[in-house]
Every structure is written in structure tokens, then in C-alpha cells.
Amino acid sequence: MSQRMTTGEAAVATLIRNGVSTVFCLPGVQSDHLFDALQAAEASIHAIHTRHEQGAAYMALGAAMATGTPAVYAVVPGPGFLNTMGALSTAYAVNAPVLAMVGQIPAAAIGRSLGMANEIPDQLGVMRTLTKYTDRIRATHEAPLKVTEAFRQMISGRKRPAALECAIDVWSRGAPVEIPPAALPNNALVDLDAVAQAAKLLGDALRPMIIVGGGAQNASAEVTALAEMLQAPVVAHRMGLGVLDRRNPLCANMVVGQKLWEHTDAVLAVGTRLSTQLTQWGVDHATKIVRIDADAEELDRIAAPEVGIVGDAVSVLQALLDALPAHNRLRESRRDEMLGLHAEAARQLAFLKPQIAYLEAIRAELPEHGIFVDELTPLGYVGRMMFPVYQPRTFLSPGYQGTLGWGVAAALGVKVARPDVPVLTLSGDAGFLFNAPELATAVQHRIPFIVVLVVDNAYASAPRIQRDRSGRRQIASEMHKPDYQKLVEAYGALAMKAGSPEELRGALRAALQADVPTVIEVSAGPMPDPWRTQRPSGGRRGAVPRG
Fold first, then answer.
1. How far is CA 105 from CA 75, 123, 172, 532, in A?
2. What share of the chain is helix, strand, coil (3-state, %, to 5)?
3. 349-532 belongs to which homologous superfamily?
4. Which CATH code fits 192-343?
5. How far is CA 283 from CA 278, 304, 447, in A?
6. What is the tens place of the pLDDT at every residue in 199-237?
7. pTM here?
8. What is the rounded CA–CA span in Å between residue 240 and residue 268?
9. Which CATH class is domain 3-177?
10. Residues facing 210 on adjacent strands
């Protein structure tokens, strides 16, 4: 049944139809009528306004990553939209379904370079560079269709961001509209012939391995079952952490994975670029690779696999589980082998004890379902290797984008989307200051979360890299240290200090009990260089390029 609505009302009604209950936003004149619609629908959808546009976009990113479902932010055009590009580029890199709803100058003025407020050349073109789907809402009747299409694109195949822009005068126009049903995904059908090929290849293997990325986060149960059936170690870095419970002996970090790689004869890669293995560890013609990915272009981007299957990880792996028993050889448990490799890796990484001790303190106090938001810090780099992750979507990373400063705002979005779980971000003082004003957002909207703020008064990696390269030179890397306790208290959040891993445990217990926005300041001196554990090389002797 049709109903007369403004364009803003039609867009908001379509968001609600697609399950959106929160919009992260910063209002402005070009989006006034969209915000009128949000206010009218506030019983069904909540607006969380931030202190900066980047904060709104990072919050939407955190919410999308924590749930795997679309999240929405709304900002004004021009500088407002451009302030969100760091978050949008990260969403594109980590395959997060984030919808940007952006205002525009009056429709008749678009593209005429009249110098209107917030005007930039070809905003739509800029949007297209970092989204899977972008369009302009030109009339009221288009709003439900284009918002629905944005959702369909975001939840189909490879999940990536989308963007819609709408002119200031179009938001306010009214017309009869119908709100369509919620968008449904349009995923590839499972190729059962390819699954049969994969089952035979993996079933015949002597020493198979599974490598998982962010595309496997929804397939934890299937990956676990396959790992046990094949007795195959499961290797993850950053985006794939949590797919297999770290307490399972078959769960391997990158150090253990590299040790196993030389003798691995078959690889099942699920939702991963596989870039480290293909470009650094070395692949020879004895390595048989099966790849499962939602994006057909990803399968042979670096090298063609023996078997490539396009599709949703859960559906394809379920079919593989059905097909594998007919081909799978009798296998002995690799438990003792894996426990020995874990112990060997722990000895190899023992030089990172200063970082590991703090990570162990966090893991001891953060419940296993609590969510850890990774940041670019010496502790964070080691965390990707050593922090035990027990459940899917409980370790969130900016992936290859390496987005310094995303953590505080992203963690707020995570907590909004997952209010039932504790949320913690481990931030350096450099990255913390990028989004520190969002503490005011957390206090105003009563969003309890924890920041473990590691203070070393520098862009921590920069001085080390500069010294290593020049032996002496150091430039643009030291930072003036504000009084973080006063700064945090000025925002109305809880400020605490911890001088050791033991003190951090006590502070975390108090913060979890307080259930308010909390920053725990940890003073840190120079820490061991983690980079050699992050950039493994070699792996297979005599490996040759493939492709």
C-alpha cells in the first residue's frame, strides 16, 4: 500500500524495514529533512550524533564488523563526507557492509561549480572509488528502491560499503511511495562439481592446512568440523582470528603456520586473500590449493588455484563436509605435534614478553565473548600473533589498511551494536588522540567501553624505523604528552592508571564493574621490535612463482 512521504521519510522507513535501529551521524543543513524523518521515527530508529564525521563513520564500521550486518552513517556533503573517507576505505578493505548517506547541494546546482557551501567536484565519483554500489536519489519514489538496492549489494557476495547522496531540496520533496520488503542476498549457487574436486584433493592430502580470513567469520562451525575431519591446522592472521577457538590445538598463529608450510601438500583457503602465503612464504607446484571466496576476482588475483569455488563460505563448506567423507583418508590426531609447535613458537616469541604480559592481563579479565578492537601499537602488533581469541567477531582489525586512530570510535560502534558484551580497544597515545573527543559521545549516549591507553609519547614505530635506517636520525615522531587523566575526566569519563600488568588486571576488573566509558592509562617504555614476527619470509625451499 502506498503512502505519501518525503524523500527523507521514505529513506528512513526503508532503513527500518532492513533492520537498522541506529544511525551514526553529524547533522547539517543539507540533511535537515533526513534528520526530521529520523526524529519522527525515533521510536524505531536512534540517532547517535558524534563530535566529528570520522567518528560517525568509524562507529558504523565497528558496528558492521561486530555483527556482520549493515550499519549506517549520515553526514553532510563535501568536507563532511571527505572526513569519513578513512573509515570508508577501511570498510572497503575489511569487507564491511557500511552505508554512507550523504547530503548534497541543491539538485540544479550539482556539477556547475557555483561555489555553494560544502560543494566539491564530482562527489558521486569520489564515493564510487571506495564502495561496491553508489547512486544519487533524484526523486522521492527512488528512495525506497535505491536504499533497498544498497542493502542488497552490501549483503550479496563480497560484503563491501555502499553510498547514497541526495540533494537538500530532494530530501524534502513528497510523493506517494511503497516501501519494498527487506533486501535479500543474491549469492552464487554452490558448484557441486567443484566441491567434489575439492573433496578429493583434500581427502587425498597427507598434510593439509586450512587458512581463513574475514570471509570465514560466519563459518566457524563448518571450519571447525573440517579441521577435525582433516586434522588440518587452521591458520589465521588479523581478519580470521576467532574462526577457530584458540584453545583448539589445531588453531595456529602465523609463526606456527609458517613452520608447517614447508611440508603442507594441500591448502583450503576460505575467505582470505592468501597474500602472505602466495607472495612471501613461497608456493611450488607440489602445493595444491583450493580457494573458496565470495568474490570471483579474488580466486586467481595472484595465482590460479587447482580448484576455485565462488560462493558464501557457509554454504560451500557445508557441501564440502557432505562430500569429504567419501574421499578422506584415515587420519591420526595431530594434537601432540601441534602442542609441540605451539610451545616452540612461544619460546621463539619469548623476547616479546613486555607486550605479552600486558596482553595476558587483558585476556585474563576480558570475558571470552568480549570484543577486542585492534589498534596500531607495539602491543597491538603482537596481539595479532599472541592474543588468544575464542569466538568469531571478537577480534576486530583494520586489516591491510592499517588505519591509525580508528579504535576509539570503532569500539563505540561495536558497543552500540553489541551492548550485551564488554568491548575494549588497545590504543597508543598517538592513535587515541585522533578520536579522543568521541569520549564525549560515549558519555552523552551512555556507551560503556574500555580504552587501554599505552603511552610512550611518540608515534611508536616511527622512531624505531628511523633509527634502524639512519642509525641516529629522528624526525616528526615525538609527541607532547597531555595530562590524560585530566583530559579523560574533562569529558566525564572514568580515568584510571596502571603501572604494570598486575595493576592493569585490577583496573580492568574495576572498569568492567563500573560499566561506564573508561580509559586506563598504561605508561610504557621502549618495547621489543615485533616486526620480524609480522613479516615472515621463506617457508618452502626451492619454491617457484605460480600463475
1. 13, 10, 13, 50
2. 45, 15, 40
3. Thiamin diphosphate (ThDP)-binding fold, Pyr/PP domains (3.40.50.970)
4. 3.40.50.1220
5. 6, 12, 47
6. 999 999 999 999 999 999 999 999 999 999 999 999 999
7. 0.95
8. 14
9. alpha beta
10. 234, 268
